[in-house]
Amino acid sequence: MNVLSHLSVWLHPAKGDEPVFRAEVERLRERWGSPPFAPHLTLVGGFDAPEDGTCRRAAALAAELAPLEVEFATLATEEPLHRSLILNAVPSARLDAAFGTAARICPQPAEPEPFRPHLSLAYLATTAERRAEAAASVALPLPLRARFDTLAVWRTPMPEVREWRRVAAWAL
Description:
Elements: E1 4-13, H1 18-32, E2 41-50, H2 51-64, E3 68-76, E4 85-89, H3 93-103, E5 118-122, H4 128-136, E6 144-155, E7 165-171
């Protein structure tokens, strides 16, 4: 069946780096009430498309990509839920190329957001002051480098983070 789903294409941290992010996401969830989610770096997020076709294109994309080393240098908070408490990735040609490749498999939104690679630590629907308090409590040392070696398609209905589900994943 070719039903449309709200999808995102993510990179996941490698096995050796993932526990650091998962522990911090969990710690912040417990302290600040963020919903649980898998640590990830969004290449393309929030588009509506059939899952089966997106997965076929994502599998081909995964075959084109190599694992990426990503450096996170700054912590930020912003108004949108999907950027409420994030680690900003240092721009790199390889990360930009991965985004460009991933963008080819997704329908183009009417007003696309510029690629601003980040890793979310919490999704907090709250005031700027409370987000700043949460940011001040982050225990990760910066700068922080991590390897990303898995591409995944996720069903990501917003704002229902608790309902996010992985559709498929591929090793890079």
